Amino acid sequence: MSSLVPARIVRKATIRKYFPKARKPSRPPKPDVTCAINKRAKQAQNVQREPKLRKQIIFKEIREILDVNKMVTAFHYNDGITSAEWEELRYILRQKGITMKIVPNKLTQKSLEDTPYVNMQPLFVSSTGIFYSQEPSTVTDMIKILSKFPKIEILGGKFENRLLAKSGILDYAQLPSIDVLRSQFCQLLIQTASRTSSLLGGNQARLSSLLTQHLKEKS
Fold it and tell me: What are the GO MF terms of this UniProt record (predicted)?
């Protein structure tokens, strides 16, 4: 006589055959914490290097401006000046061979250290910039142009190897140009030569007259 299989066992066998148990999904691999930390550290270093590199470039540029150009003038500008006024001023100055640049104060002060122009440091404490040119004579054009822009004020600067305050720059701008000075010098030489020639000619004529009179008296 065959023994009966319990219903509970039959039910489990049926479920396993027709309804197999779903496999658990495999877990993703754990992230490499060390790699992520190194990546973040590199990103932070790059972020820190960019401003430092930019400062080095600006520092070098300001030094080069001071060394190459014979005229470098610091100026203060009013925050109310518009972008249109800036563009107009840049264009007019460029036509006269003058370049304008807005500079950061701290970097400019640092770039002036250990240079003959260290005394210009107090000029860069507010909203400041510089005008520069390789020709000092352009200062006359600069003063005329800035007279139409009252929101910009000259503070001081360097001309050749000399440092000048605002009053010195204004006096320098009133000096005649090199061409005018050359013309005046040539006129002075011509006048001197003409006067010398007339003096010598007059003496010769007087001597000749005296000799003629002396001969007449003897005869």
Answer: structural constituent of ribosome
pTM over 0.70: no
- pLDDT level of residue 1 (50, 70, 90 thresholds): very low
Neighbouring C-beta atoms of residue 97, cutoff 10 Å: 14
The predicted-structure confidence for 167-199, as pLDDT tens digits, reads as follows: 999 988 887 666 666 766 677 777 666 666 666
User: CA-CA distance, 87 to 149, in Å (whole number)?
Assistant: 12
Burial 57-93 (b: 16+ CB within 10 A, else e): ebeeebeebbeebebbbbbbbeeeeeeebbeebeebb
Strand order across the beta sheet in which 152-159 lies: 99-102, 128-133, 71-77, 152-159, 162-165
Tell me the average pLDDT of the chain.
78
Contact present, 109 and 124 (Cβ < 8 Å): yes
Identity of the residue numbered 182: R
Residue 138 DSSP symbol: G
What CATH architecture is 42-173?
2-Layer Sandwich (3.30)
